[in-house]
Amino acid sequence: MITAEKTVHMANQIARSIAAGSEDEAARATADHIAKFWDPRMRQIILDHVAEGGEDMLPAARRAVEILRDQGPPRPA
Q1: DSSP string, the chain
Q2: Where are the domains of the chain?
Q3: What is the rounded CA–CA span in Å between residue 77 and residue 66?
Q4: pLDDT for the residue 17
Q5: What's the pLDDT at 16?
């Protein structure tokens, strides 16, 4: 079962691995990765977690989820 704790951990790992640039670059790259590779259920869990305050998230990971939220639902390919 995928939990909010697991998705937070994963998003933080992605943001850390991309953090070579600015926080904004890391956030955008993390958002792109989540949008491309995460299952819709996982994306919803992390979106809900941020809506509830986003506890334990790195700033770049939280910003990535906010970017995804602001973009709206993914478009069909």
Answers
A1: ---HHHHHHHHHHHHHHHTTS-HHHHHHHHHHHHHHHS-HHHHHHHHHHHHTT-TT--HHHHHHHHHHHHH-SPPP-
A2: 4-71
A3: 22
A4: 85
A5: 87
